[in-house]
Automatic annotation (TrEMBL):
PROSITE patterns reported for this sequence: NLPC_P60
Gene3D superfamilies: 1.10.530.10, endopeptidase domain like (from Nostoc punctiforme)
SUPFAM superfamilies (UniProt xref): Cysteine proteinases, Lysozyme-like
Example GO biological process: proteolysis
Species of provenance: Nocardia terrae
GO molecular function terms noted in the UniProt entry: cysteine-type peptidase activity
Family of this protein: Belongs to the peptidase C40 family.
Name of this chain's protein: Transglycosylase SLT domain-containing protein
Coiled-coil intervals, chain numbering: none
Signal peptide: 1-21
UniProt domain NlpC/P60: residue ranges: 198-325
Keywords in alphabetical order: Hydrolase, Protease, Signal, Thiol protease
Amino acid sequence: MLARVLAAGGVSVVFTSVVIAAVVTTVTVANQTNSTAPNAGVGSAPSQEAVSDIPPYMLVLYQRAATACPGLDWSVLAGIGKVETDHGRSTLPGVSSGENFAGAAGPMQFLAPTFDSVTSRHPMPADGASPPSRYNPVDAVYAAAYYLCDSGAPEDVYSAIFTYNHADWYVHEVLDQAAAYRSQTPTGPGDCGRVHGGDRASVVLAFACAQLGQPYVWGGDGPQVNGGWDCSGLTKAAYASIGLTLPRTAAEQYRSGPIISESALRPGDLVFYGTTDNIHHVGLYLGNSKIVNAPTFGIPVRVQDLHYPGDDYFGATSPLTASSAVSGDSAQ
């Protein structure tokens, strides 16, 4: 239904036209005072599921609010909105009025002290309530964007969402919902500059891409630990950014599976090089036949072709499809 009236802070808002194509959004708004035109935020294009499931006003709002946290994809906010209150459509206590058993309220389920703290530190949009209200969708979604940013997003989306609600199952549910809301190219972009979004694969790749240029160090667990990365140290840390623990060496990571065919590769999967007796290298599949990896001595973390002259490509695994990952502590 394109016409939707929201009574929030005494302002009636009627949305008569919503056209979404990639990140181009047109909205006609009536009866608002002192408001700015809502522009879509930079990020992924909405999937068909997003367009059909998210109320048009909320979809535009998620896109707008994401710009308050540069680099945060709107789909993460939408994932939280879906998990918390079905985008404000839930009839449970504390959504449109009152509080739930924990004291949370509004479409993004803020505790009053947290909401007040966030809104006191950050500029709120003119088309929200005055003073800001947890029940006002504009205030609530912008406050969520600011709160995630204050908590480490977009660099560490997993931890930011965990701060929002201290449960790993919650983080996984939000990230999976965010992935469903994003229109995704199955082969992936093959370009670190085009890695966006809050789904788990994108978070893993964003971590690895943020390490581009860092030196290769044998047994390296990061520049803050021992000056750089080795191949399996990078992949282990990238997956740790979403709460999954991989073994430490390339061979152990391959054996932990699940093993997939090269034709089934998806962004975020692990690719391995070597032989049955000597798996000596691992990288992260970036899509479009590209990987991001810590290659070897004298060559920093970089993006390169999956296949190259003389390569000894061995196989691939998809840890994101595994029910759990095995831990390990020896370095390669």
